[in-house]
What does this fold into?
Amino acid sequence: MNWGTTMTEDKDNLDLLFAQAREKRPELPDDLAVRILTDAETVRLERRKPDETKTNPLWTRVLAGLGGWQGMGGLVAASMAGVWIGFSAPAFLPDPANYIYAQDVSFVVADLSLDTSFLEDAE
Amino acid sequence: MEDLTSLPQVVRGAPCAADAIGDDALLKQFADGDAAAARVLTDRLAPRSLSVALRFLGNRAEAEDVTQEAMMRLWQMAPDWVPGQAKVSTWLYRVTLNLCVDLRRKKTPDRLADVPEPEDEEASAAERLQDAARKDALQTALSQLPERQRQAVVLRHIEELPNPEIAGIMGISVEAVESLTARGKRSLTAILAGRRDELGYDDD
It folds into this structure.
């Protein structure tokens, strides 16, 4: 290609350079395609998280955290056993209430009846 | 979790049913959670973004980073896309060029790095320089154009987009596009003609 000596030839040569540039358009390298698709997957998965929160109300997520229905059953059984033991403690177990209230309680009985004897003495 | 990245043959353009679907519909499918739509959109749109970024920046590593970022923004805006308002490709070209401009404004251009390495080790130093300059003549000339002229010329004469679409990408009127491309071509012609001796075309 000779760069032209006239304006028209120069323009033709420029068009030729454009045509060559169009033929040499870059292909997408594999590593760049992988980077782009990894980004797409990250965005796609992040977008799904809020939807899961929407469809699962708070109580179902709390239940799942406690081990589902099976875990919840065990929790209820243990709680009921505790209530029963507290209500009717077996004889071989010491009554914890005694530890709390095990102290001598002396009652001071004050005679609050109206004592009129001093009045009699005065008389 | 489906591994998207292990199927490069799909990315490389293997035909599939999704090829017949428009970019709008594919973007909606992706927003609805369809991973396969991302592969087709990448195959279709990412090479265009890379081509424009490479011609604007003249640096492959930077152009690839810009393309990745532009595609990332595409994935992020997918749920908000309103079909029929504009072409997805127009949106991507605009984002790509804006990223290129931001990058260039942040960093001083390193044009020496843009000249490709000569392949023929037997050639003299002068011949190697001449060869490199010829190969890179258009890129070097493009780099000397003002920003907007460069954008318009690349979109019109390398991407071969119609003027109304370029106007949409650049946010200007069709007349302004015509003016920019005309001035850009005149400038390129002058730059290349001024380098005639350096390019050595008179000797051919």
Q: What stands out?
A: The CA atoms of residues 9 and 15 of chain B lie 10 Å apart. Residues 7-15, 115-121 of chain B have pLDDT under 50 and may be disordered.
